[in-house]
From TrEMBL, chain A:
Pfam families in UniProt: BPD_transp_1
The species this protein was found in: Halorubrum salipaludis
Membrane-protein topology: Multi-pass membrane protein
Cited function: Part of the binding-protein-dependent transport system for phosphate; probably responsible for the translocation of the substrate across the membrane.
ABC transmembrane type-1 domain mapped to chain residues: 85-312
Gene: pstC
Entry keyword Signal: no
Name recorded for this polypeptide: Phosphate transport system permease protein
UniProt similarity note: Belongs to the binding-protein-dependent transport system permease family. CysTW subfamily.
Ranges in coiled-coil conformation: none
Automatic annotation (TrEMBL), chain B:
Signal peptide residues on this chain, from the entry's feature table: none
Record's keyword terms, sorted: Cell membrane, Membrane, Transmembrane, Transmembrane helix, Transport
PROSITE patterns: ABC_TM1
Organism: Halorubrum salipaludis
Topology relative to the membrane: Multi-pass membrane protein
InterPro entries from the UniProt entry: MetI-like, MetI-like_sf, Phosphate_PstA
Any one GO cellular component localisation term in the record: plasma membrane
Segments passing through the bilayer: 28-50, 62-80, 92-113, 119-141, 153-174, 180-197, 204-223, 235-255, 262-283, 289-307, 319-342, 367-396, 417-436, 442-464, 562-586
Subcellular location: Cell membrane
Protein name per its UniProtKB record: Phosphate transport system permease protein PstA
Any GO molecular function: phosphate transmembrane transporter activity
Gene: pstA
Automatic annotation (TrEMBL), chain C:
Domain ABC transporter intervals: 31-271
Database matches in CDD domains: ABC_PstB_phosphate_transporter
GO MF, one annotated term: phosphate transmembrane transporter activity
Pfam families: ABC_tran
InterPro entries assigned: AAA+_ATPase, ABC_transporter-like_ATP-bd, ABC_transporter-like_CS, P-loop_NTPase, PstB-like
Chain intervals for the UniProt region annotation (Disordered): 1-21
Top-rank taxon, per record: Archaea
Keywords carried by this UniProt record: ATP-binding, Cell membrane, Membrane, Nucleotide-binding, Transport
GO biological process, one term: phosphate ion transmembrane transport
Species per Swiss-Prot/TrEMBL record: Halorubrum salipaludis
PANTHER family named among the record's database cross-references: ABC TRANSPORTER I FAMILY MEMBER 17
Stretches with biased composition (Polar residues): 1-16
Protein name as it appears in the record: Phosphate ABC transporter ATP-binding protein
One cellular component term from this protein's GO annotations in UniProt: membrane
Length: 323, 594, 276
C-alpha cells in the first residue's frame, strides 16, 4: 500500500474481479472435466456390471462357448460370445469389402483427379452418406435391398440376412475412409508429384505409385477407424440382420474345413451389438445375468474399438511427422 | 513401375507415346467409386419418397397438373431471378430433351431388360430430370436478388412456424406458469436493470442485472406453489413471448429505419397474433388458441422485419411474390385435379400422420407423440451440449498452455475427446442405463435420461467443431485485446466468442442432427418404442422419431413396411435436411461476413 | 530500398526538426530496464540490456530483424507472458516499480500501457465500440461518448469517421484502421504507448500521417516505437536505441547523436546501410 503512492498501482485486482475471473476459469475447467469423467464413467459402469457377470459366468466360458441364449426360458442359459463374434466379423468384413476399396478410390479421385468444382460438390454429398440415421439405413436394407437381392441374385436369401445389412454398413462408412484418406493424400507435398511427372510418369502412375504409398499410413488409419465403426454399428444390423445367434456349419472339402460364405451371409445372424439390443428390449431393471451380460458385451466392444482407435491414432501420427 | 511405353514407331520424331489406357480406365473407375455410394443412396431415397407419397398411384394427369401449376412457375421464378438467357435456354433444353430421353430409355429397359418395380417413366422423369434441375436452378436463382428475397421470405415463414411449433411443444412438459413467474420476476427486472445501466451510463446497474435475474427466478420457483391464480396460457404466451419478440423486432427495425416502420414491424404481427390467438375461436376463424398466437408471433415478427428491410432496400421486391406463387399454384392444381377427377395418390405422410398417435391400423398411424418426444429431447440436448461444448472448447483453446503439466493435461483431454468420438453409440446407451437410469434413478427412457445420454454422445463432436471455430479467430484480435489490459475472460467474452459464435452454432446444429437420428442408445436406456399420447412431464417414458421407425419396421404388414415407415423416414429426413440446411446457411453467411 | 538511399543531408535536416521540438533535458524516467535477459527456450533473445526511457519523449528501437527489439518492447507490458517458452530475467521498471515482481498483475499493468501492433487489428465491432473497448473492460463510468470523440481526435481520425461511428471498424482503410487502433490505445489514457512497427503494413501516405500523429502523441504520452525504417526513427524520435544481432543493446543516445556521430563503428555501418 505504501508503494502505491508513488509508483502506479499494478497490484492484483480487487477480490470481486478475481473471483469473477476464477469463477469463469473454474466453470470452463469443470466443463472440460466432464469429458474426462465421461470416459471414467463409461469404463466404471461397464466394469462394474461386467465383474458381476464374470463372477457368474467364467471369462473362459464367455470367450469360448459356441452358444448364445441369454433367455432362461428357451432351454438352458448360455453366454458364449463366439457366435456373436462370427456375426460381427461377417458384417465387418463384408462392409470392408465395399467401404475400403470404394473409399480409397474416392479419395484418390478427390485428391488427384477432381476439379475444384467437382470436389466442392462431391465432398458434401459424400458427407450425407455418414449423416443419414442408421435406423434409416437398416430400414432400406430390410425393405428395399433384401427384396431386390432376393428377386435377382439370391432367391434363397432369408428376410433377415447379414448381406443386406453389411452392404448398408459399407456404404455408410465410405465417407469415413474417403475423407481421412483424402486428407492424407492432400498432405503429400506437391514436390513428390512434380518429381514423378519430371521422370515422365503418367498421372495414373503418380497417383498409384507415389501419392498412395506416401500416404499409406493415413489410409491405413482410416481403414482401422472405418472397421471399428462397422464393428460398433448397431441399428442397421438390428433392423436388417435379425437376431439369430447361430454357428455356421463347418463343411469339409479336400480335407480342409471351411465355412460356406452363403451360409453366414444369406442367413440371419447376430452381432455383439444386436445381442445387447435384444436384451435391452426385454429387461432393464438390473440384477439378472442377462442384464449384466450386456455390460460384458459392451466392455468387449469398448475395449476393441478403443484399441483400434488408439492404433489408428498412432499410425496417423506417423504420417503427420513425415511431412 | 516402368511406364507402358509404346514401341514409339508411330511418331516420326521418335518421342513415342505413352499409353494412357490404364490411366483413363482408372480415372473413370475412381469417379465411379466416388458416386457409387451417392447413387445408391439416391435410388433408395427415390423409392422411399415414392412409398411415402404413394406416387405409384399418381396418375400421369395428376403429375402433369402439378408439374404445370407448381413446378413450371417455380422454375420460371428462379430463372427470372437468375436473369441468364443461356441458363434459361439450357434449362428448357434439359426439361424437353430429358422428357424424350427418359421416356425412350425407360421404355427400352422395360421392354428388353427387366420390369422396374413401382416406377413409371413419368416418375423416372420427375426424379432423374425435374428434381435435380429444380435443385440446380433453385441454387442459381437464390443467388440472384429476386430469388434471394423470395427464398428469404419463404425461409422465415417456414423456419418461424417450425420454431413456434417447437416452442408450443416444449410447453407441453415445461410449466408455462412457472415460466410466467420467472419471466415476470426475473428476466424483466434483469433486462430493465441492464438497459438502465447501459443508457444512463451506470455500469453498476448493468452488473447487477445477473444477480437480479437469479434472485427473481428463485423467487418465482418459491412462489409457484404458493400462488394459485394465473392468467390464461394465451395471455402468458402473449406477455412472455409475443411482446418481447415484437419489441426485439421493433428495435432491430428502429436501428436502421424510422420510428413508424419500427412500430409497424413489431406491432402488426403482434396485433395479428393477439387477435387470432385470443379471439380466433370466438370470431370463427377456424384457428385460434395459444399455439396459433405463438406461431404467428414467432414467424410473423422476423417476416415483418425482413419485409421492412426488403422494401427499404427497394431491390428485388417482386421476389416477395414467391410464397403467393406457390400457394396459388398448389390451390389451382388441387382445383384442376378435383374438377377433372384425376386419380390422385393417397400419401402416407399428411397432416394426420403428423398430428395423430400411433395405431395398429396403418391408415390411422401417426407420429405425433414421437415428434413431441424428439423435439423435447433435442431441445434439452441442444442446451446441454452447447454449454458443455463451448465451455470445454474455450477451456482448451483459451485457458490452457502448450507446455508443462498443464500442456500435458490438455493433450490428454484432447486425446480423450478424440477417443470419445469413436466409441460406439450403443456403449453410450449402456452408460445412460447404468449411470443415469439405474444408479441415479432418473428413470428408464425419460426425457432426462435420454437427453443426458445423447448430450454426452454428441459432446465430442460439438467440442471439436467449436474448437475449430475458436481457433479460426485471428490471434491478432486476442493480442489486441490483451494489450488493452483485458482479462482472459474479457478477451474471450468480447472478442473470441462473438467471432466464433456462428461457427460454434453451425457445429452444434450439425451435431444435433446426429443426435436426432440416434436410436441404439435410446433402446439401451429403455425409451419406449411406441407411446400413444404426448408426454406431459420430463419423467414420462419417451419415444422419439427413430424409435418409432424402428418399431414400425418390425411390423409384418406391407402397409406398415412400405407406407407408414416410409412416411416416418421422410419426416425424419426432412427435419434433418432443415437443420443441416440452416447450419450450412449460417456458416456461409458468417464466411461471407468476414 | 529505403535503407540504401539514406543520404546524410536528408537525415540531418529531419533530425533537426525532430529534435528541436522537445529538446528539454534532463527527463524523468518512464520505463527502465536493468540487466534484462530474455530467453525463448534455449535461445537468448535479449542479452543483458539496461536502459532508461524518458517520459514524454519518443524513443525508437532500431536494429536488424531478429535483434530482439520487439521482444524488448513486449517485455514492458509483459505480452511475452503469453508465450509459453519465454523466460525473463532481470528488472523492467515502470514508474519505479519492477513489473516482473510477484505482486504485479500483468492485466493491471497493460491497462496503464497502450500498445499498437504491426498489422492494424481493429476488432470486428463498430468504430465506437472499438475505441470504447478499453473503457468498457476497465469499468469506466464517465462519459464514454466524449472519451471516444476525444480519443478519435487525438488519433486524427475524428473528422474522417464522425458520421459513421456505428459502422464496422473493418470498413476503414489500412491507415485509418491503424489510427483507429491508436485511438483505441489512448482512450483509457495510458502512460506509455508501445508501437511495434506501426507503419510497416501501410502505404507511404498513410505512414506519414501516423508519423505526424506520433509526434503529437509525445506531448502527452511516452512513446516507445520499434521500427525497421531508419529515416522514420530519425524523423520522429528523440532518443534512439540500436539493437544488433543477439539481442544486445549496442548504443543508446539522443537521436541526433546516433545518426550524426555514433560511437560504435557497427552502428554507423548499420545506419549507413552497410549491413542489416
Amino acid at each position: 500500500m505504501t508503494e502505491s503512492t508513488e509508483s502506479p498501482d499494478l497490484q492484483r485486482q480487487s477480490g470481486l474481479t478475481r473471483l469473477k475471473e476464477g469463477t469463469y476459469g473454474g466453470l470452463f475447467a469443470a466443463c472440460a472435466a466432464v469429458t474426462l469423467l465421461t470416459t471414467v464413467a463409461i469404463f466404471a459402469t461397464l466394469l462394474y456390471d461386467a465383474v458381476v457377470f464374470f463372477s457368474e459366468v467364467p471369462v473362459i466360458e464367455f470367450l469360448t462357448s459356441t452358444s448364445w441364449s441369454p433367455n432362461p426360458r428357451g432351454g438352458g442359459q448360455s453366454f458364449g460370445i463366439v457366435p456373436l463374434v462370427i456375426g460381427t466379423i461377417t458384417v465387418t468384413i463384408t462392409a470392408a469389402f465395399i467401404a475400403l476399396p470404394v473409399g480409397t478410390l474416392t479419395a484418390i479421385y478427390l485428391s488427384e483427379y477432381a476439379t475444384p468444382n467437382a470436389r466442392s460438390i462431391l465432398k458434401p454429398l459424400l458427407e450425407i452418406l455418414a449423416g443419414i440415421p442408421t435406423v434409416v439405413y437398416g430400414y432400406f436394407a430390410l425393405v428395399y435391398i433384401t427384396p431386390a437381392l432376393k428377386a435377382t441374385l439370391f432367391p434363397e436369401m432369408s428376410t433377415f440376412n447379414a448381406l443386406s445389412a453389411a452392404l448398408m454398413v459399407g456404404i455408410m462408412t465410405i465417407p469415413m475412409v474417403s475423407s481421412i484418406s483424402e486428407d492424407a493424400m492432400s498432405a503429400v507435398p506437391d514436390d513428390l508429384r512434380q518429381a514423378g511427372y519430371g521422370l515422365g510418369a503418367t498421372k495414373f502412375e503418380v497417383s498409384t505409385g507415389i501419392v498412395v504409398p506416401a500416404s499409406i499410413s493415413g489410409i491405413a488409419s482410416s481403414y482401422i477407424l472405418a472397421v471399428s465403426r462397422a464393428i460398433g454399428e448397431t441399428m442397421i444390423v438390428v433392423v436388417a440382420m435379425g437376431a439369430q445367434a447361430r454357428m455356421p456349419a463347418v463343411q469339409e472339402a479336400f480335407g480342409v474345413p471351411f465355412i460356406n460364405p452363403a451360409d453366414v451371409l444369406l442367413e440371419s445372424g447376430m452381432t455383439i451389438t444386436v445381442a445387447m439390443v435384444q436384451i435391452a428390449n426385454g429387461d432393464l431393471t438390473g440384477g439378472t445375468i442377462p442384464y449384466d451380460s450386456m455390460f460384458a458385451l459392451g466392455l468387449t466392444l469398448f475395449v476393441v474399438t478403443l484399441v483400434m482407435n488408439v492404433l489408428s491414432d498412432i499410425i496417423a501420427q506417423r504420417y503427420r511427422e513425415e511431412y | 513401375m516402368a511406364t507402358d511405353t509404346d514401341t514409339g514407331t508411330a511418331s516420326a520424331e521418335g518421342f513415342g507415346e505413352v499409353s494412357r489406357v490404364r490411366g483413363i480406365i482408372f480415372e473413370y473407375l475412381s469417379l465411379g467409386a466416388s458416386v457409387l455410394g451417392i447413387f445408391a443412396l439416391a435410388v433408395l431415397l427415390v423409392y422411399v419418397t415414392i412409398d411415402a407419397f404413394d406416387l405409384t398411384n399418381a396418375s400421369p394427369e395428376w403429375l402433369l397438373t402439378y408439374f404445370l401449376t407448381l413446378v413450371v412457375p417455380f422454375l420460371a421464378f428462379c430463372l427470372y431471378s437468375a436473369n441468364d438467357r443461356e441458363l434459361t435456354r439450357r434449362a428448357a433444353g434439359v426439361l424437353g430433351g430429358g422428357l424424350v430421353a427418359v421416356a425412350v430409355v425407360f421404355t427400352a429397359i422395360e421392354a428388353f431388360v427387366t420390369q422396374i418395380p413401382r416406377l413409371s417413366w413419368q416418375l423416372a422423369y420427375l426424379f432423374v430430370v425435374v428434381f435435380p434441375l429444380t435443385g440446380y436452378v433453385t441454387y442459381v436463382g437464390s443467388s440472384g436478388r429476386v430469388g434471394g428475397v423470395g427464398f428469404g421470405l419463404v425461409g422465415r415463414l417456414i423456419g418461424g412456424t417450425a420454431i413456434g411449433l417447437a416452442l408450443a411443444v416444449l410447453f407441453l412438459v415445461f410449466d408455462a406458469r412457472l415460466w410466467f413467474l420467472a419471466y415476470t420476476l426475473g428476466i424483466v427486472p434483469a433486462l430493465a436493470s441492464y438497459a438502465y445501466g447501459r443508457f444512463r451510463e451506470r455500469p453498476g446497474a448493468s452488473t447487477a442485472a445477473v444477480p437480479v435475474g437469479i434472485v427473481g427466478v428463485l423467487v418465482a420457483v418459491f412462489l409457484r406453489p404458493v400462488i394459485d391464480t394465473y392468467p390464461t396460457t394465451a395471455f402468458i404466451y402473449l406477455w412472455t413471448l409475443a411482446i418481447p419478440i415484437a419489441a426485439a423486432g421493433a428495435l432491430v427495425v428502429g436501428a436502421r429505419g424510422s420510428r413508424t416502420e419500427a412500430i409497424a414491424a413489431g406491432g402488426v404481427p403482434l396485433a395479428l397474433a393477439t387477435v387470432v390467438g385470443l379471439f380466433g375461436g370466438i370470431l370463427g376463424l377456424g384457428v385460434g388458441g395459444p399455439n396459433a398466437l405463438l406461431v404467428i408471433a414467432v414467424a410473423g415478427v422476423p417476416t415483418a422485419v425482413y419485409l421492412q428491410r426488403v422494401f427499404d432496400a427497394g431491390d428485388g421486391v417482386i421476389g416477395l411474390g414467391l410464397p403467393v406463387l406457390l400457394v396459388v399454384g398448389a390451390l389451382v392444381g388441387a382445383l384442376v385435379v378435383e374438377a377433372f377427377g384425376f386419380p390422385a395418390p393417397d400419401p402416407w405422410i399428411d397432416g394426420s400422420f403428423i398430428t395423430e398417435a400411433p395405431s395398429r391400423t396403418p391408415a390411422d398411424a401417426g407420429l405425433y407423440p414421437a415428434i413431441v418426444g424428439s423435439v423435447i429431447i433435442i431441445a434439452m440436448v441442444a442446451v446441454l451440449s452447447f454449454l458443455l461444448g463451448v465451455g470445454t472448447s474455450v477451456f482448451l483453446e483459451e485457458y490452457t498452455a502448450n507446455s508443462g503439466i498443464v500442456g500435458a493435461l490438455t493433450r490428454l483431454l484432447q486425446i480423450n475427446i478424440a477417443n470419445l468420438a469413436a466409441i460406439p453409440s450403443v456403449v453410450y446407451g449402456l452408460l445412460g442405463l447404468g449411470l443415469f437410469a439405474n444408479l441415479l434413478g432418473l428413470g428408464y427412457g425419460t426425457a432426462v435420461t435420454v437427453s443426458l445420454t445423447l448430450s454426452l454422445l454428441i459432446l465430442p463432436i460439438t467440442i471439436i467443431s467449436a474448437q475449430e471455430a475458436i481457433r479460426s479467430v485471428p490471434d491478432d484480435l486476442r493480442r489486441g485485446s490483451d494489450a488493452m489490459g483485458a482479462t482472459r475472460w474479457q478477451t474471450t467474452k468480447n472478442v473470441v466468442l462473438p467471432e466464433a459464435f456462428p461457427g460454434i452454432l453451425t457445429g452444434t446444429i450439425l451435431a444435433l442432427g446426429r443426435a436426432i437420428g440416434e436410436t441404439a442408445p435410446l433402446i439401451m436406456v429403455g425409451a419406449a418404442t411406441t407411446v400413444f399420447s404426448a408426454p406431459n412431464s420430463l419423467f414420462d417414458k419417451y419415444s422419439a422419431m427413430p424409435m418409432q421407425i424402428y418399431a414400425w419396421a418390425g411390423f409384418p404388414q406391407a402397409d406398415f413396411r412400405y407406407g407408414v415407415v416410409a412416411a416416418g423416414v421422410i419426416t425424419l429426413l426432412i427435419i434433418l435436411v432443415g437443420m443441416n440446411g440452416t447450419a450450412i446457411l449460417l456458416r456461409n453467411r458468417a464466411e461471407r461476413g468476414t | 530500398m529505403s535503407n540504401t538511399e539514406s543520404s546524410d543531408s536528408l537525415i540531418t535536416t529531419d533530425v533537426e526538426t525532430g529534435s528541436d521540438e522537445h529538446a528539454v533535458a534532463p527527463d524523468r524516467t518512464a520505463v527502465a530496464a536493468r540487466d534484462l535477459n530474455v530467453y525463448y527456450g534455449d535461445e537468448q533473445a535479449i542479452d543483458d540490456v539496461s536502459m532508461e526511457i524518458p517520459e514524454n519523449r519518443v524513443t525508437a528501437l532500431i536494429g536488424p530483424s531478429g535483434c530482439g527489439k520487439s521482444t524488448f518492447l513486449r517485455c514492458i507490458n509483459r505480452m511475452n507472458d503469453m508465450i509459453d517458452i519465454c523466460r525473463v530475467e532481470g528488472d523492467v521498471e515502470f514508474g519505479g516499480k519492477n513489473v516482473y515482481d510477484a505482486d504485479v498483475d500483468p492485466v493491471a499493468l497493460r491497462r496503464k500501457i497502450g500498445m499498437v501492433f504491426q498489422k492494424p487489428n481493429p476488432f470486428p465491432k463498430s468504430i465506437r465500440d472499438n475505441v470504447a473497448y478499453g473503457l468498457k473492460i476497465q469499468g469506466f463510468d464517465g462519459d464514454v461518448d466524449a472519451r471516444v470523440k476525444e480519443s478519435l481526435k487525438g488519433a486524427a481520425l475524428w473528422d474522417e469517421v464522425k458520421d459513421q461511428l456505428d459502422s464496422s471498424g473493418l470498413e476503414l482503410s489500412g491507415g485509418q484502421q491503424q489510427r483507429l487502433c491508436i485511438a483505441r490505445a489512448i482512450a483509457p489514457d495510458p502512460e506509455v504507448i508501445l508501437m511495434d512497427e506501426p507503419t510497416s503494413a501501410l502505404d507511404p501516405v498513410a505512414a506519414s500521417k501516423i508519423e505526424d500523429l506520433i509526434d503529437d502523441l509525445a506531448e502527452e504520452y511516452t512513446v516507445i516505437i520499434v521500427t525497421h525504417n531508419m529515416q522514420q526513427a530519425a524523423r520522429i524520435s528523440d532518443r534512439t536505441a540500436v539493437f544488433l544481432t543477439g539481442g544486445r543493446l549496442v548504443e543508446y543516445d539522443d537521436t541526433t547523436k546516433i545518426f550524426e556521430d555514433p560511437e560504435e563503428q557497427r552502428v554507423e555501418d548499420y545506419i549507413t546501410g552497410k549491413f542489416g
